[in-house]
Structure formats: structure tokens, C-alpha cells
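User: Can you recover a sequence for this backbone? Please restate the input before giving your answer.

Assistant: Of course. Working from this structure:
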């Protein structure tokens, strides 16, 4: 499995469908990189997202190509095809296990998710074990982050309590932490963009120019 060299010791993981990648994803990545001083950030598109309704998802290669265009030139950001190499749905736990094996114990993984996705964590495969492999970074609006996060942690992760000094929830020694990161929301979703393209509306205010050009050139979402 190919991974970029020099990821450093604090590696952020942003998984998603990325159909297409948009400015909200990029803003999240940048905010978390700064908040937690990450050495690098890996975007990992899901080959077969387990939690998406069955609208016809664009080919994996299109989604990767758009990610490459969006993040390829940003230092410290890269795109991984890790989930293409697995048969069946892309589960986060499998991805984190694989990354842990490749990168080794010295590298700390930070698994980034939106508050909305975190609230659905009870549906995830082997949710308790996720924290054996990574810390979570939960990104939410300033008004919702702490309280919603606290409710979800209490309901799903026994033994975790908030440590004021570290600004994160801590479990047993050796387990990952859960960090809340607040950011002003960027009002955009991939669904909005697919819908705008279908209606012939503008999208260049919400995706990088190279991604908009790619969508045009390949006739995606029409
Ligand atoms: P869709 O509209 O197709 O459901 P999406 O825009 O939510 O897609 P995903 O690829 O599913 O994009 O998202 C990947 C990750 O990025 C998820 O953790 C999601 O919560 C987060 N995310 C997506 N859009 C935003 C946004 N505007 N602000 C903050 N986080 C976001």
C-alpha cells in the first residue's frame, strides 16, 4: 500500500465520500491541522461508503481525481487510495487498523469527523475499538460542539471524562482522546453541489476552480 513519505508523527485522517470534495472539507482540514498542530493530513475517500443512501456514487477514480486537484498542491495534505484496495464496504475501523500497521506505534492518528457524523457513531462497526487505534477530532459549530459532543461521548464511550487541562475527553491510559474543535460552519455539502450542477447553477463559490473544471469536463452530476 502506497502512502506518502514524511507524514510525521501527528497524522489527521479525513474520510468521506467526497462526491465531490468542497470548500467545507478543506476548511475542516485546515482548522483541525492548526488546532492540533498536525504534521500532515490524509484525505481517504471511501470506496463503498457504508452509511450513505444508495444514490449512484461517482466512480472512485473521479472522486480521487477531484481530491488530488483540491489538495495536491497544499503542503502536508495528501490523498490515499487505501480504501480502494479492500473488498466490500469501507469501515473506519479497518482503515485505522491498516494505517496503524503501516505507520507503526510512534505515529498518532487523529480521526476527524463532523459533529453530525459523530452523533451517529452508535451505528458504527466496532466503535469502541476505534479509540484503540486513534484519537477522535469532532468538529462542530461553536454553539453545538461541547454540549452535543458531551452527550454522544457519555452515551457511547464508557469511562471517558472531560479533562479541562487538555481540552479533551480521556479514557483509559493508551486509549485515544476525543477532541472537540469548534469552527464557524462553511455552509456547503456535496449534496448541494450535485443538485446545483443538475440545475445548471454556479458552484465555483463552493469548490476549488480545478474541481469545478473537472466536473464540467467529465459531465459529472448532470
Ligand atoms: P453528502 O452531502 O454527499 O452527504 P458531505 O458534504 O457531507 O456529503 P462527506 O464526503 O460525506 O461530505 O463528508 C466527509 C466528512 O466531512 C464528514 O465527516 C462530514 O461530517 C464532514 N463535512 C462535510 N461537509 C462539511 C462542512 N461543510 N463543514 C464541516 N464538516 C463537513
Amino acid at each position: 500500500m502506497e502512502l506518502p513519505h514524511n507524514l510525521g508523527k501527528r497524522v489527521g485522517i479525513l474520510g468521506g465520500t467526497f462526491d465531490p470534495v468542497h470548500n467545507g472539507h478543506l476548511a475542516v482540514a485546515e482548522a483541525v491541522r492548526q488546532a492540533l498542530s498536525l504534521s500532515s493530513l490524509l484525505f481517504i475517500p471511501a470506496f463503498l461508503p457504508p452509511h450513505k443512501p444508495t444514490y449512484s456514487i461517482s466512480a472512485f477514480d473521479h472522486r480521487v481525481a477531484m481530491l488530488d486537484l483540491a489538495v495536491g498542491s497544499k503542503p502536508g495534505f495528501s490523498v490515499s487510495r487505501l480504501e480502494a484496495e479492500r473488498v466490500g464496504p469501507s469501515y473506519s475501523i479497518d482503515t485505522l487498523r491498516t494505517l496503524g500497521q503501516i505507520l507503526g506505534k510512534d505515529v498518532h492518528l487523529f480521526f476527524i469527523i463532523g459533529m453530525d457524523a459523530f452523533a451517529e457513531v452508535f451505528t458504527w462497526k466496532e466503535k469502541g475499538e476505534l479509540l484503540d487505534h486513534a484519537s477522535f477530532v469532532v468538529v462542530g459549530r461553536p454553539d453545538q460542539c461541547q454540549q452535543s459532543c458531551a452527550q454522544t461521548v457519555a452515551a457511547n464511550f464508557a469511562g471517558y471524562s472531560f479533562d479541562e487541562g487538555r481540552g479533551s475527553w480521556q479514557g483509559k491510559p493508551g486509549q485515544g482522546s476525543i477532541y472537540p474543535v469548534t469552527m464557524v460552519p462553511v455552509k456547503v455539502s456535496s449534496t448541494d453541489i450535485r443538485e446545483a450542477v443538475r440545475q445548471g447553477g454556479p458552484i465555483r463559490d463552493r469548490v476549488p476552480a480545478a474541481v469545478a473544471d473537472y466536473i464540467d469536463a467529465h459531465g459529472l452530476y448532470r
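That completes the design. The chain has a mean pLDDT of 91.
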